[in-house]
Amino acid sequence: MICLGLDLSSHAGWATCAGDGTRPASGVWELPWTGEIRNIGGMLHRLDLSMMKLIKAREIKMCAIEEPFQSYGAKSAKIQLMLWNLVGTAQMVCAREGIEFVIVQPQRWRTLFVGKGDLSTDEAKEAAVDRCRELDWPAQDHNAAEACGIWAWLKAGVEVGWQAKVLSDRPLVYPKGSTKFWRDRQRLGD
Hints:
Elements (H helix, E strand, L loop, with lengths): L2 E5 L3 E8 L4 E8 L10 H18 L3 E5 L7 H24 L2 E5 L1 H8 L7 H15 L6 H17 L3 H5 L13 H5 L6
Parallel strand pairs: 1-4, 4-5
Antiparallel strand pairs: 1-2, 2-3
């Protein structure tokens, strides 16, 4: 199955299948953000266009979107609103194109990809970049590296045997025959 992993922010990381599906192709979309909510429309439009281009080129069938972190304060409220608007736009694009999607908490994909879910933001970024280097996966920065981790989490959940073949040094999070991933999914209409 051709999957897409998204780490959304003003520098949105994406990762999807490349070649035989054991390695990702990844990149970063620069989304214009002035820091003002009233100017968010251009950012959301750019995400829509960027996703559509990738979906059409790669024939994406399923998407995992990282759940935004929780923070507090006036500045944080603007950032939270921006991030959740990005998540909503990604969900809208998926729904419009008939692509199943799931929202994944950072701790869940990090546990699979880097071996530990309770890292600080900076530690998590560094760990994702290091893991991509270790696997020889292309990632231009921490945004793309985290998207690779999200993609790997999704691949491990939808393709039996993928994790054992590609991430053999990590314990199986979704053992053969497990339905946990499917019970945990948040899909449109469920």
